[in-house]
Amino acid sequence: EAQVTQNPRYLITVTGKKLTVTCSQNMNHEYMSWYRQDPGLGLRQIYYSMNVEVTDKGDVPEGYKVSRKEKRNFPLILESPSPNQTSLYFCASSLAASGGMEQYFGPGTRLTVT
Amino acid sequence: TQLLEQSPQFLSIQEGENLTVYCNSSSVFSSLQWYRQEPGEGPVLLVTVVTGGEVKKLKRLTFQFGDARKDSSLHITAAQPGDTGLYLCAGRYNNNDMRFGAGTRLTVKP
Predict the structure, then answer these.
(1) pLDDT at B3 > cutoff 80
(2) Beta strands B104-109 and B10-14: pairing type?
(3) Which of B1, B34, B61, B99 gives 20 to 30 Å between its CA and that of B44?
(4) Record: contact B98-A41, CB cut-off 8 A
(5) pLDDT tens-digit map of A49-106
(6) Residue in chain B lying closest to A40 (CA)
(7) H helices then E strands: how many in chain B?
(8) B47 CB-near residues (< 8 Å, 6+ apart)
(9) What part of A 60-89 touches B (C-beta under 8 Å)?
(10) From residue A17, how far is each of A13, A38, B92 by CA, in Å?
(11) Which residues of A touch B43 (CB under 8 A)?
(12) A12-43 residue pLDDT tens
């Protein structure tokens, strides 16, 4: 089954404790991205990747890191989480970034930073 | 800065009513997509429009892309409880970046 998986689905952590949210897709997609979703603000792009070893900042990259060492994986790293990073996070992938390509979204990771 | 404005933010209607949701931007987009999101899940694509003035129909849903490619609308005819969800528009204004609206939360009461 074609899908985007994220882990963990729920995470409660404390300020400053490094964490990683994993994202994996099995569709051989080139383009992957991370979004955060907050009430009233919709989905905002954090980082995206056009292909292996190619990453770029989205709208709200501060406090986040990503890597794309393999085509299927695109982990999101919070080196020193802060309470304002409490949010619902989505990973997405598409065949390519151009045109009207459909993005396939993972189920989301709800992160709470206390 | 929210480049896409969606209205209304919330909409609660009775089963069988019609409704229209709007998505407006000050920028021209190369393509615009509508997604639907249910609680606990990620957004799922409904439609992509790429040509100014384009109209697409998906059963009871009609999507329209403005002539100037700066706005779009989603019209639902005879809404059903199963249409309940968060509707998001997303515009791509270059090949790398996609911007989402804040969404319209629709509730259809039986």
Answers:
(1) no
(2) parallel
(3) B1
(4) no
(5) 999 999 999 989 999 999 999 999 999 999 999 999 999 999 999 988 766 678 899 9
(6) B102
(7) 0, 11
(8) B33, B34, B56, B58, B61, B63
(9) none
(10) 7, 22, 35
(11) 43, 90, 103, 105
(12) 999 999 999 999 999 999 999 999 999 888 89
A40 vs B102: CB contact, 8 Å cut-off? yes
Burial status of residue A88 (CB atoms within 10 A of its CB: 0-12, 13-18, 19 or more): middle
Tokens of A108: 């989301």
Are residues A82 and A63 in contact, defined by beta-carbon separation less than 8 angstroms? yes
Residue of B99, B103, B100, B88 lying closest to B44 (CA atoms): B88
Which residues of chain A have a CB within 8 Å of the CB of B6? 42
Cα→Cα distances A95→A22, B13, B97, Å: 19, 37, 14
The answer to whether A42 contacts chain B (CB < 8 Å) is yes
Q: Which residue has the tokens 């791509």?
A: B92
